[in-house]
Amino acid sequence: MSSETKTKEPWSFFKTIIALGLVFLCVVAAHWQYTRGVDRHERNNVIEERIARSPIELNARDTKLENNEWQSITTTGRFDSTQQILLRNRYSEGKYGYEVLTLFTSNSGEKFWVDRGWVQAGATATTAPVVSAVPNTDVSITGRFRLDSSLPRGSFFALPGNGEGLVSELNAQSQLDTEKFYIDLLSGSDPSLSPAVPAQLPPLSDGPHMAYALQWLFFGGLIIYGRILIRRTR
């Protein structure tokens, strides 16, 4: 008569607790990726809906600035060529360059920055890029309404200036008090204002977040399967 000897698994309870903890972390990571995917999808829908709207006058914007972000607006005023900054580390078709931001004052007295598009960098690090001049008369412009918080992150290189940088620092140095929004220029009443390479929209794909969420759930399933397999082999 044969007998079967069963070996007790050492630290079985603690291994199970660790496995459950790892599964919990996988579920949390999956939920985080799912939430990011939903938020990004909603953001893309908002952008697509608003860029499809007809342009409105700047003075007709909503009192809540975020309700008009990405919408095309029109306004009339004057550029200040003495207040201009270049946002570095910007690329177009693989070429290094800058975004040109110039101060604009509307006829209603509002001061804000206008992103006049991308320009290629100079031949050397000390060579200023070629930036088209702005008219010194009143002009009408059309552009996308953007919030200051959505300015591309990075360093600013001021020309002329000492190379310090951020918009807030430039405002402080120049004793300026600009609005909390800026405009991505699309066109102007003067043909020279239309940027050769206008500011680009962000990518409107939903990204890999949903795939990552499923991946984390798969990892959690593997942990459960592995724990059961180890216990059975004991």
Which secondary structure elements does this structure contain, and how are they paired or packed?
Elements: H1 12-51, E1 56-57, E2 72-92, E3 95-106, E4 111-120, E5 139-147, E6 156-157, H2 167-174, E7 181-188, H3 209-233
Parallel strand pairs: 1-2, 4-7
Antiparallel strand pairs: 2-3, 2-5, 2-6, 3-4, 5-7
Helix pairs in contact: 1-3
| Shape label | elongated
Share of helical residues: 25-40%
Radius of gyration: 27 Å
Assembly status: single chain
Report the biggest beta sheet as strand number plus sense, adding barrel if it closes.
Answer: 5 strands, mixed, barrel
- If you average the pLDDT, what whole number results? 83
Q: Please work out how many helical segments DSSP would assign.
A: 3
Low-confidence stretches: 151-166
Q: How many strand elements?
A: 7
N-end to C-end Cα span: 23 Å
Characterization of the model:
The chain is elongated. The chain has 3 helices and 7 strands. Helices cover 31% and strands 27% of the residues. A hairpin with a 2-residue loop joins β2 (72-92) and β3. With 234 residues, the chain is of the alpha+beta class. The longest helix has 40 residues, at 12-51. It folds into 2 domains: 12-42 and 207-233; 56-193, Beta Barrel (OB fold (Dihydrolipoamide Acetyltransferase, E2P)), CATH 2.40.50. A 5-stranded mixed beta barrel has the order 2-3-4-7-5.
